[in-house]
Amino acid sequence: MNDKTEELRDIFTDVTDGEETVTESQENTRGSLERDERTTEERLESVVTQMRERYEFETSLSDDELISVAKAFYEGDSDSEIASDLGVDEDDIFEARMSLHLVSENDADEVDLAAIRDREEDDAVLADEYDVGEAQIRRYRRVAAAEDESRAANDRYRDEFDSVLGDSELSEQMTTDVREDGLEDATEGMETDVEF
């Protein structure tokens, strides 16, 4: 060692209180986001149970059937398809979805729910005004009530369903996209018109 190097070494040793090294061993730590260790079924069952305790469900469907309704809703199945799969009436599926706060864009796309939400007129008057049947007005009012109930809970339960069922679809889509992008990158520039 030359004099300069030895002098720097002495300064280093003084500054670090005689330690020969200042590096610290690194730990393998997990990310800051906590992962729910429960299965998808357990998480869905928890949401349905909480909702049953908080609200009076007007459905005869069991918790397992309600979970099936939620899954099918997120898969894009219609009420008639879900009803057919479960062997129940389509109106039962609609009521189950409303009880679970699973309102789709198509449930009231023909009417402004805010306009009928607080109207006190009976179904016949509103049906005549909107040129629809009374059953349709009752349906719209049920959708409005489900939205109000969901908002009163800060959309907590709908967010839970989104988290459980929406994330699984999103992660599947992201995995597929990554696979496709990786394959595209790997095959870029390769000749594909090869004759043997």
TrEMBL record:
Residues 182-196 have a biased composition (Acidic residues). Coiled coil: none annotated. Residues 1-12, 32-43, 147-161 have a biased composition (Basic and acidic residues). Residues 1-43, 147-196 are annotated as: Disordered. It comes from the Archaea. This is Conditioned medium-induced protein 4. It comes from Haloterrigena alkaliphila.
